[in-house]
What does this fold into?
Amino acid sequence: MADLQEASVTLPSAPASVSAARKFVSNILSEWGLPGDTEVADTVRLIVSELATNAVQHTRGQSPTFTVDIELDREEQLRIGVTDSHPRYPKRLPAAVQQDNGRGLVIIRWLTMECGGRLSVTPTPEGGKTVWIALPWTAPVRGGTAASSPSPR
It folds into this structure.
């Protein structure tokens, strides 16, 4: 088994891409040995949905695409990153703010921590950012290579 398995897909910044990102990640994780009917798989799908939604909604049309990267390192850690080309970092809103949206990052951070993971944001060389989550991997890893789409990096 390789020390690192990777997969990537680049999607248009459109609402329909949120479900495409979720399905892509779910299929890859299933190939790597995480059954789709587990609580962890449900949590990962929700996190990916929130990350992709943020990439679509909060870039205000300044990022025509976003990329989802998945990495499984030494059968110990799963990393999922969503990259867009908008330079503004996500902001966590105060709890008192009365809005119907803007809680995605709070949800992502809470779910990630509940799974024993962490969240980080890193700049890209092109001036955008990647929002990463890192989670411990608990499923036995199956072999195989994942199909991936080229990433515009």
